[in-house]
Amino acid sequence: MNKQFRLLDCTFRDGGYYNNWNFSNEVVNDYLKSMSKIAVDYVELGFRSFRTNDFQGPTWYTTESYLNRLSIPKNLIIGVMVNAFELISHPLGFSKTIKLMFKKANKSKVKLVRLACHFEEFNETTKICKILQKMGYFVTINLMQISEQTEEKIISVAKMAEKNSPNVLYFADSLGGMGPPQISNIIKTLRKNWHGALGIHAHNNLNNAVANSLMALDLGVTWLDSTITGMGRGPGNAQTEYLLIELQHTQKIKFNISPLLKLIQKYFEPMKKKYNWGTNPYYYLAGKYGIHPTYIQRMLVGNFDNEEILGTIDQLKHGEGRRYNVDLVRSDFQKPMKLIQGSWLPSKKIKNREVLLLASGPKANDYRQELEKYIKSKKPFVIALNTTVNINKELIDVFAACHPLRLIADANLYKSLTSPLVVPVSLLTYSLKKKFKNLKLLDFGVGIKENNFGFYKSGADVPRLYALAYALSIATSGKASKILLAGFDGFGSHDRRTKTVDELLALYSSCKEAKPILAVTPTSYSVDSTSIYAL
Length: 535
Description:
Distance between the termini: 79 Å
Mean pLDDT: 90
Largest sheet: 8 strands, parallel, barrel
Structural class: alpha/beta
Number of helices: 24
């Protein structure tokens, strides 16, 4: 098919952010067959990486041995993406590292390599580009977060590109907030000095990805990215199927879309139901405020409620959210994290006392008078897991929180506390430390170990970075006599969030150091219970 532009589908590379790049060979082979029958020219099948600190599936590495097991149609050109920083920062230096990662192109199934880089990495990335080109590869450079750059920086990079000649210069709307005027300005700015091929990778926060891609094509961009059903990090990308339908009419290209629609029905509709990619009001706000979409993705899978997500967006929009910081995010996609011990010893306050954990379920408000009466008469050590608990704040010994994004969301509420806040100080960002400078912080450290609790004098390992797990650990490390739960209403027996908490409670109860747990207000969790009136 003789076209003046090129279509690159990067479904398994960008979509892997939802399933750790763990696609079955059956899906990949059917996908490749479908791509060969439509107007797609290039398939960026995945990343290529050395990183091994946690499990990733085959399209994270996209090794030669993996490619050799696939049925790759002859009319498709296979590409991979490399994060340039991984090569630049490698202790061997990028010249040697490239040779470890790639063989010469004539001995590889890969023919296209895309180097993703931030602006400050561009100069070194052009050197990597030249080495790969000498090895026979068609090399593109993907400029990330271009919307956040000054015109001077864009011009500077365009001049470097013109001097060093990558095969294609791509720009990515990484934060998904650009509309037609911004796209037009960026293309015009790049074209002042870059005269080679231009490509666009559009994100779909504002539902503009297809429209932005088509407008870029009208302005002379000749490489267009897309993914099937828009599957990709955060809100995803321009949808391959929609882009192709538009191009059929505007560019008069001819192909049979039926194989793609069958592929979507068989594989991608079920995956989308499971992972729920695509834009929504939160991604829309992130695009408007220049917040990295992965923060939204992690909060959505981490069961943050609406107010917490909106609160986090409100804090992140002031600049901290423009670059994704993995240390801020420990949600359902939790990674192991080494415990850094704190300085607070809970045993000095808790030893041999009952601990009452307070959550903000409506039932706590229903039984507020009885709870307050119990606290005054029995003097348990009271730990509140939310700033919105409906109990006299003077009766709360400490508030406890451990998830950095929840801390960001509630930062302004925490600033008004009179009771101390127990937090793992090592996880606080610089801006949070500034906001909390007048607040009494008790440093109880935390680490993450899969399916594991571990209790130490001034810190604990937890299986998930949940406030409940953290509070249970404080009570256990503090050598409490037993633990009472109030306001833990739950979400109903059929809600997956209830199942998650039940699993957490069961894992805790299986530990030899675990303390007896008793819910004293109505709950749907699988835990022993009584009535606050019976105590």
